[in-house]
C-alpha cells in the first residue's frame, strides 16, 4: 500500500502516533472535567451543609432533612415560595405596593429562593461536567484503541 512518493507523515505509524497523542490529550481533558465537576459538587454540598438549614416541616418532599443537595435545596425553595405567597396574599414582590409591610418578607423570600436555585443549578452544571468528562474519556479510550490498530497495521510494513 505504501509508495515511495507517500510522505512519512501519512504512514499508518505516523497517523497512529498522532492519534495516540490526541487520545491521551482527550483522556486528560476528560479527567480534568470529571475532577472539576466533582470538586464543584462537593464544594457546593459542603457550603450548603455548613449553613445547617433543614427543609421546612410543611414541605411536600424531604421535610425535616438537612439541605445538602439539589433535591433538598429545590424542595426548600418551593416551601419558601409558598410561605411568601401566603404572607403577601398571593402576590409576588413585583405586584405588591411599596408601602405594603409584607413586601420585605416577600423580597427576602425571593432572595433566599434565588440562592437555593443557584445551588441547584450549580449541582446540575457539576453533574454535567462529570458526565461529559466520562464521555470525553471514553472517546479518548476509543481513539487510543484506533491508534493501537494503526500501529499494528504499520508494524508488518516496517519489517
Could you characterize the architecture of this molecule?
- α1 packs antiparallel against α3 (103-158) and α2 (70-88) runs antiparallel to α3.
- It is rod-shaped and about 85 Å long.
- 72% of the residues lie in helices and 0% in strands.
- The protein is mainly alpha-helical and 159 residues long.
- It has one domain (28-146).
Quick structural gist:
It contains 3 helices and no strands. By secondary structure, it is mainly α. It has one domain.
Spatial separation of the terminal alpha carbons: 14 Å
Q: Which percent band covers the strand fraction?
A: under 5%
* Fraction of helical residues: over 70%
Question: Shape, please?
Answer: rod-shaped
Strand segment tally = 0
Q: Helix-strand pattern, N to C?
A: HHH
The number of helices is 3
Radius of gyration: 27 Å
The residue-averaged pLDDT reads: 91
Count of the separate structural domains: 1
